[in-house]
Protein: Acyl carrier protein
Amino acid sequence: MSNLDQLRQTFSDALAIPPDQVVNDLRFNSIPQWDSVAHMALVAAIESAFDIMLDTDDVIDMSSFAKAQEIVRKYNVAL
Structure:
């Protein structure tokens, strides 16, 4: 599984949505499943999946699946 697929699966699992709904346009609060509580669970799941620790600014800035890809890349994860 590629890192991009792993990130997509992490979103899918954390938000309890099908992987095919995890597209670049998926945005925070655009679906009921991605609220502020789910956001923190998602952050924890991403950190665990890639063995990284996101800083506070990145947690706040992670507003979409596309932005999450950009942020994860900052931590030397090839997507």
